[in-house]
Amino acid sequence: MLTGKQKRFLRSKANQLKPIFQVGKTGVNENMIEQISEALEKRELIKVSILQNCMEDKNTVAEKLSAGAEAEVAQIIGNNIVLYKESQENKHIQLP
Q: Residue 90 falls within a domain, yes or no?
């Protein structure tokens, strides 16, 4: 579980990131969760965009992605979700 200070730090890091995944009409599926897990292992911090044609609520999408990828939701802003997961091999981010 992330503290408030850690979430603030991650939000500042994620500010300049571009979304690398998009959740569309089909919603969250196993293949997407697997790819997000791999991306989190490489990058530790990613941004996911939710398209307007997505039928699911953004909080539901964030919950499914974080549970499936075993990641923490650092932020939900607008239609973007910021996910963080500490990498085992490629550690880049030092949390305060």
A: no
CA distances from 45 to 16, 54, 59 (A): 11, 23, 18
For residues 23 and 2, what is the distance between their CA atoms, to the nearest angstrom?
A: 24
| AA identity, residue 37 | S
Domain CATH for 36:
3.30.110.60
The pTM assigned to this predicted structure is 0.92
Q: What is the predicted pLDDT for the residue at 73? A: 96
Q: What angle do CA 75, 76, 82 make, to 5 degrees?
A: 50
12/36 Cα distance (integer angstroms): 21
